[in-house]
Write a structure and sequence with these properties.
The protein is an alpha+beta fold. Helix content is 62%, strand content 7%.
């Protein structure tokens, strides 16, 4: 059966080599070994399986054995040399094909995420990797404590977990700039949620951001940029959530759209805190904890490792310096917006 599956061209000259080598006891010549390697490469490029090819060689050897003459040891040595050279050529072609595929995949991902290619051509190339760019897609980005490449254990572990749960489902998992990425159809949020869970665990508590579903060929890069921006916001604002959704953070880009206006608000509202003993940072941290705890003094004090009395003293000090009372709803929105702006603009470390 192996001979019927494998074309005779990949066994060309094999019976002659066996006959001569077994009769004379000589080893294969350099040209004969090179010819077996070349046939192995051709067989790999044609898509044949190595197991079937080896079986075909063994079957051919059994068929030629009665006519081979010479010693069995010589014949077996020839079979070993032929199969070894053939397998070497086959594996070389497979390795080259894998490297070419990896290069094509990396080039596609770079073009996809940077939007550098013609959209029509990009959509055609995407189908090769299971993506239909005419549909909406969303991107999840996971960032760990170290950078990852596609061949590293962590990305492979996450990929296995996602594929084991959902199959391919037109999902593309890869890495970019040391981060893990998952690109999925926009309506399959469960895929991105599972990726986020697996990536969080595999990166030992890394952070994951999920962009909004975006339509069309440019949707992937748009969602990817949203996810990156969410990671940057989380770092600036020191957000604790392990999984961030760009849709939940839309207020922050709005607040910083007019950077100069936000800088003016921060300086005018919080600038007087710099006159406090110890500078503005302790009082700014107090406001941050107070607002993050829902304006509950006891919870804010716990977060700051202060007594409620000490926290109340700080809030009173803020009121006196700024003229705005954090406990007063009329002042709270302005103060909280200014605090968010200070965190986004890295004030007071950065002069505005």
């Amino acid at each position: 059966m192996a001979n019927r599956e494998i074309p005779e061209e990949y066994l060309d000259g094999y019976d002659r080599i066996l006959a001569e080598v077994s009769a004379t006891g000589r080893r294969l010549t350099r040209d004969e070994i090179a010819s077996r390697r070349a046939l192995g490469e051709q067989a790999a490029e044609a898509g044949h399986r190595l197991r079937a090819l080896v079986s075909a060689h063994l079957t051919a050897a059994r068929t030629a054995w009665p006519d081979a003459g010479g010693t069995a040891d010589s014949a077996l040595a020839a079979v070993q040399q032929v199969i070894d050279a053939f397998a070497e050529g086959f594996e070389r072609a497979e390795l080259l094909a894998v490297r070419q595929e990896e290069a094509a995949r990396r080039e596609f991902i770079d073009d996809l995420l940077y939007g550098r290619s013609d959209l029509g051509r990009l959509a055609e190339r995407a189908e090769r990797f299971g993506l239909r760019l005419s549909h909406a897609h969303a991107v999840a980005v996971a960032q760990g404590r170290t950078a990852y490449g596609e061949a590293d254990p962590v990305p492979r572990q996450v990929e296995r977990a996602v594929i084991a749960r959902f199959g391919d489902r037109s999902v593309l998992l890869t890495t970019k700039d040391g981060r893990l990425l998952c690109i999925a159809p926009g309506h399959q949020d469960e895929v991105l949620a599972h990726f986020a869970k697996q990536a969080y665990a595999a990166t030992d508590g890394g952070r994951v951001a999920i962009g909004r579903p975006q339509p069309g060929p440019g949707g992937v890069v748009h969602s990817y940029e949203e996810a990156l921006n969410a990671l940057e916001l989380a770092e600036r604002l020191d957000l604790d959530d392990p999984v961030l959704r760009a849709a939940d953070l839309l207020v922050y880009p709005v607040l910083t759209r007019d950077r100069q206006a936000m800088a003016d608000l921060v300086v005018d509202t919080l600038g007087p805190l710099a006159a406090a003993r110890g500078g503005a940072v302790p009082l700014l941290d107090t406001l941050t904890a107070y607002f993050d705890s829902g304006c509950v003094a006891a919870e804010a004090a716990r977060r700051l490792s202060l007594s409620v009395r000490a926290l109340t003293y700080r809030l009173d000090r803020i009121h006196k310096l700024t003229g705005a009372n954090p406990a007063d709803p009329a002042h709270r929105y302005m103060l909280q917006t200014a605090v968010i702006g200070a965190r986004l603009l890295d004030w007071p470390a950065t002069e505005l």
